[in-house]
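Records of this kind hold a single protein each, on a pair of labelled lines. Below, a sample record shows both lines together.
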Amino acid sequence: MPPPVFRFAPSPNGYLHLGHAYSALLNSDLARAVGGRLLLRIEDIDAARCRPEFEAAIYEDLAWLGISWETPVRRQSEHLARYRDAVENLSARGLIYPSFESRAEIARLVAQKEAAAPWPRDPDGAPLYPGAARSLSADQRRRLIAEGTPYALRLDMAAACAVAKNLGWSEHGEGPNRERGAVTARPEDWGDVILARKETPTSYHLAVAIDDALQGVTHVVRGQDLFWSTSVHRLLQSLLGLPEPAYRHHPLLRDASGQKLSKSTAATGLRELRAAGATPADIRRRVGLP
């Protein structure tokens, strides 16, 4: 039987902090405890924010912590064709449609709707898509695309949920409200999520579902802030015929004000702590690992 496969998947859009250290060390410890493999994946689809110096710092910081990983490292930016194939698959089945509103136009539509009644929001607190692009005719869509109008490719959530029913996952950690064990997925809570844009052939949701499958990841260990995102990932796994990994969501490390740690918080940055004389053992103690 093949060994379990874990992964740590940071984005190179800033330097790592204690929260990243906790997640990376936890994945490393769990993999070692069961004789599993640890993969490192660089999630760099956001070309505007991801930078080579941040990626280099990730390798440096993880090595300093004593973490080792298999090579070669998967970099999402090198596999965009894989994501395009998945988008074409879903599009051919009528499960994706283009929306042409700008972010400002969407904000204006939400404000108009909220003037009458509260508008629903997703688990992250963002308003659900309020537009009517799903009802545009094929000719209208072709004309807007031919004119060069920017667009986002959205999952038709109602149609997708009609295809993939009764989804859930096995939670080996716990959610924000202590959800654990057999969890019922609620992808509809996210509305018509974006899966790609005109200039970017994938989103986080789509890329992570595909990458975990292609890399043979069996155990996804990540922060509780991504707990309900698992609903979308399970939906995409079902639609695309991808395997379901086991999930373990861990508590987030927070600052003195109760906010989750940010890459802009120098006080908890690994580079700053290293410069101040911290050792890898100090970091393990600070994040609560033996």
